[in-house]
Amino acid sequence: MKTPCFKTCSLALLASASLIGVGGAQQSFTPNAKELELYRIVRDDPQQQRTQVILDPRLCLAARKHAQDTQARKFFDHRNPSGVWSNERVLNEGYPLPSNYAPNTNYVESMAGSTNDTPAQAMTLWKSDVPHSNHLLGKTDFYRGQVVLGIGQAPKSGLSYATYVFISAPLPVGENGTLTAAAAAKLVVKSDAVGNLILSGPQPKSIIEVNRSTSLGTWTFDRVVVLDATGKISLGPKPAAKEFYRFGYYQP
């Protein structure tokens, strides 16, 4: 299994210049600990057939919102009580699916109810069922082509088990989404005029996993983002301490 390609840079070297203004809507998602654990379990499973994957904030939002909705409205289905299916919920988050992905069905989502609220149990449940195993591990050509992932989790509240949601989709239609190694080498983090960190790159709409470190020894997954139409996105206020950044991306 090939994890996302990575490029590392130092904020201390890159924060000397300024960028003024960031256009477009912000698309960013920070997974909670259980969502991040499940992503790593799925990505690194020895049986995983996808050669490379990338997390996407829109798919993660669709997954988390649906997990939370199952607890709030006490149901467990790909079609919610309002009649909205999985494909449509992904489209509603702004993720462009292929035209043959009809809104009123499910081509993208698997769900698991975990009584002990652990990603490991959710994965065990999925792997014990052939259709779900095919989806999670990309064991068919159709699912193997769904290389962009979303993970959502909601603790048990309305139901007697926690809800885990896995979503996968092809690369976003009409958006590049990917980065070549040469383009990734041009990713930079700079501070703007008001002290916010701005990640910018040469390819708008690129999907990028952002990891932070203060020592280059231990990396913390910070968030996954989509660069806006100008190739930028805010990472929030500049920290007081020196930081390094490592960017995961999908390399075509």
Topology at a glance:
Layout: E1 5-10, H1 11-14, E2 18-19, E3 28-29, H2 33-44, E4 54-55, H3 57-73, H4 86-92, E5 109-114, H5 119-127, H6 130-137, H7 141-144, E6 148-154, E7 162-169, H8 181-184, E8 188-192, E9 196-200, E10 207-213, E11 220-226, E12 232-237, E13 244-249
Parallel strand pairs: 2-8, 4-6
Antiparallel strand pairs: 1-13, 3-11, 5-7, 6-7, 8-9, 9-12, 10-11, 10-13
Helix pairs in contact: 2-5, 3-4
Give an overview of the whole structure.
This protein is an alpha+beta fold and 252 residues long. The chain has helices at 11-14, 33-44, 57-73, 86-92, 119-127, 130-137, 141-144, 181-184, and strands at 5-10, 18-19, 28-29, 54-55, 109-114, 148-154, 162-169, 188-192, 196-200, 207-213, 220-226, 232-237, 244-249. Strand 8 (188-192) and strand 9 (196-200) form a beta hairpin. Helix 2 (33-44) packs parallel to helix 5 (119-127) and helix 3 (57-73) crosses helix 4. The two termini are 15 Å apart. The model is unreliable at 10-25 (pLDDT under 50). InterPro entries: CAP_dom (IPR014044), CAP_sf (IPR035940).
